[in-house]
Amino acid sequence: MGAYILRRLLLVIPTLLGIMVINFVLVQFVPGGPIEQIIAQQQGQGDVFGSFSGSGTDVGMEDTSSAYEGDYAGARGLPPEFIAQLEKEFGFDQPPVQRFFNMMWNYLQLDFGESYFRKADVIDLVIDRLPVSISLGLWSTLIAYLISIPLGIRKAVRDGSRFDTWTSGLIIAAYAIPGFLFAILLLVLFAGGSYYRIFPLRGLTSDNFDQLTLWGQIVDYAWHITLPVLASTISSFATLTLLTKNSFLDEIKKHYVMTARAKGLSERRVLYGHVFRNAMLIVIAGFPAVFIGVFFGGSIIIETLFSLEGLGRLGYEAAVARDYPIIFGSLFVFGLIGLIVGILSDLMYVFVDPRIDFERREG
Questions:
Q1: pTM recorded for the entire structure
Q2: Other Cβ atoms within 10 Å of 16 Cβ, number
Q3: Which of 56, 170, 254, 289 has the fewest CB atoms below 10 angstroms from its CB?
Q4: Could you tell me if 329 and 126 are in contact, meaning their C-beta atoms sit under 8 angstroms apart?
Q5: Which CATH code is given to the segment(s) 123-362?
């Protein structure tokens, strides 16, 4: 198993490199770079998209050695020295290939550079936002699994019963509700919107968090994270419950289960001693997708609605502002976390069913 883990860890390097290459290439074709953003702000347009108003200005970038005339939409009226200084400061005076390799070399040294617009190191911004995203991703995934697995097993055992029918109706309704809509509903009902003010409206902790005792800090943290976690969990909870139920139903109908029952084994031992480890494999296989989906995809909207400063919101704001150091820095962190979670998922395979030997299968 050690050799397999080592090979998987070594594969992280080319995989992560491929992710960075693809996204770096795509970004080169996206209009409205950071320099254009600054130009638009200098001219009072708010953002670069104000220059794409159909005024007939050529927004294409031309390869000229003269100042910058025609290089940036809406750049007329600004000194050429100002544009040249911006290009040098942001590193755009270098070819894209050179910029990419310089960036990756700095990443290997854990140097993620400095944000273009926030005047702070990217690594400090990521570390500062990481607790929020980890809290949402980890707690939402754990709660979804802790609820879905027992509920899915019970539904499989009592398939076709009244309990199975009405819980399926609730699950389908939960799956149909978008996470952001459920988040708004929670805010209206329980965060002082129109009814009750039970939970706080924003933030991960209170202003006096550092002055609280350890138990007070735990309670305060749980008080703040309850609504965001509930909003993040609802869709994954529904999917996992039905997946667990169907997986157990498929296993229960197999011959080895009938053989185990014929030998006189108790129903509990048949269910948890034989069926469980086989049925749970497909459920565990979806763990990385659930975690990463909540960690990044769902956290953008949830973080915005609950005013949480997490990586999802940071990445979105950086994409809008074309803050490339933050975009690629957060992408690097998300990609690395996703690949590590995939390896942990394989280890959980072995934990659930020790008969699995990845090294023998690869050999």
A1: 0.69
A2: 18
A3: 56
A4: yes
A5: 1.10.3720.10
How far is Cα 35 from Cα 40, in angstroms, rounded to an integer? 9
Closest to 321 measured CA to CA, from 41, 22, 43, 25: 41
360 CB-side CA count, 13 A:
5
What would the pLDDT profile of 144-199 be if each residue is shown by its tens digit? Answer: 888 888 898 888 888 888 898 998 888 888 888 877 788 888 888 888 767 788 88
Which residues pair with residue 121 across a beta bridge?
Answer: 114
Residue span(s) of the chain under CATH 1.10.3720.10 come to 123-362
What CA–CA distances, in Å, run from 268 to 122, 262, 271, 273, 274? 52, 14, 5, 8, 10
Q: Kindly state the tokens that stand for 308.
A: 């949480």
Signed CA dihedral, 310, 133, 237, 199: sign only: negative
**Residue 114, phi then psi, degrees to nearest 5:** -120, 140
205-215 pLDDT tens trace: 888 888 888 89
Would you say how long the chain is, in residues? 363
